[in-house]
From TrEMBL:
Residues 16-175 form the N-acetyltransferase domain. GO terms for cellular component: cytoplasm. Belongs to the acetyltransferase family. RimJ subfamily. InterPro entries: Acyl_CoA_acyltransferase, GNAT_dom, N-acetyltransferase. Coiled coil: none annotated. PANTHER family: [RIBOSOMAL PROTEIN US5]-ALANINE N-ACETYLTRANSFERASE (PTHR43792:SF8), GNAT FAMILY, PUTATIVE (AFU_ORTHOLOGUE AFUA_3G00765)-RELATED-RELATED (PTHR43792). Keywords: Acyltransferase, Transferase. It comes from Catellatospora coxensis. This is N-acetyltransferase domain-containing protein. It holds the Pfam family Acetyltransf_3. Gene3D superfamilies: 3.40.630.30.
Amino acid sequence: MSQGGGRVDGVTDQLVRLVPWSDDDLDLLRRVNTPEMKKHLGGPETEEKVLARHQRYLALPNGRMFRVALAGTGEPVGTIGHWDREWQGEQVYETGWSVLPEFQGRGIAVAAARALIEAARADGRHRWLHAYPGVDNVPSNAICRKAGFELVGPYDFEYPPGSLMRSNDWRYDLRKQ
């Protein structure tokens, strides 16, 4: 793992490697933009919104997006990242992820979440990393639990804009070892 200016250039877990988001990852973003993959997030986005999201991922000013790749082969299997958000009066990191359906159920998302914890810890600007899966998103809530996040409680969020979503607030203390 190499670092420069507080940014992590790649984090490897035994199962996955987090590779910084690049122009080459647009196709992966399209692959995770399906009704199945977006059922807990308001449905698939238009091509225009996917292109805009890709540009945001490339230029995140206070965070980092990654391609999740299998450690052994480098095959792209999903996305994960962290970015700044204000939460209950303080600055925290938020995280979110997607793992392609054919790779789900293998521990990949948990490994990616654990590697992302290390990337956020290395970035070092905030104490807390939060994830906000919908209360009905059983797999993502299980990923949070298995990756070591603490359940704080349910909250209502407007996501996507114009829709109310009931989510669990999971947090990870980046100061603990």
